[in-house]
């Protein structure tokens, strides 16, 4: 049994492909804004002594995925700042986990809002 694709069906498939691509692009934009906001939240809340740890907070793209990176070889104390040190009575001063939690809450709603914008734009013609 052969299946033939009519021109209406082909147009629908082309539209669906376009919508998926447009939503993907919009979603990437929402992800970038969210990663930037997360990095800014971290920069605003990291305890600053020398500013070295704060200067390591950055948004990077790795294999097509965005990530917020914190710390480098010159900031081995990152874990002590985030989690504290019980042995030295050094309290935790978290700045990574609160920023990540706030970003996680926003992620789905921002992506959904972007998808709705694309849908409205496409269905209006």
What does this structure look like?
The chain has 125 residues and is mostly helical. The protein has one domain. Helix content is 62%, strand content 8%. It is built from four helices and two strands. The protein has a two-stranded antiparallel ribbon with strand order 1-2. A hairpin with a 2-residue loop joins strand 1 and strand 2. The model has no long low-confidence stretch (mean pLDDT 81).
Shape: elongated
Largest sheet properties? 2 strands, antiparallel
List the uncertain runs: none
The ordered H/E elements are HHEEHH
User: From the alpha-carbon coordinates, what is the Rg to the nearest angstrom?
Assistant: 22 Å
State which percent range the strand residues make up: 5-15%
The main sheet orders its strands as 1-2
How many distinct domains? 1
Average pLDDT metric: 81
Regarding quaternary structure, how should these chains be classified?
single chain
Computed structural class: mainly alpha
Distance between the termini: 35 Å
Q: What share of residues is helical?
A: 55-70%
Provide a count of the helices: 4
Total strand segments: 2
Write a brief caption for the model.
This protein is mainly alpha-helical. It has one domain (30-123).
Map the helices and strands.
Layout: H1 7-45, H2 52-55, E1 58-62, E2 65-69, H3 78-83, H4 96-123
Antiparallel strand pairs: 1-2
Helix pairs in contact: 1-4
Characteristic terms for this protein:
elongated, 125 residues
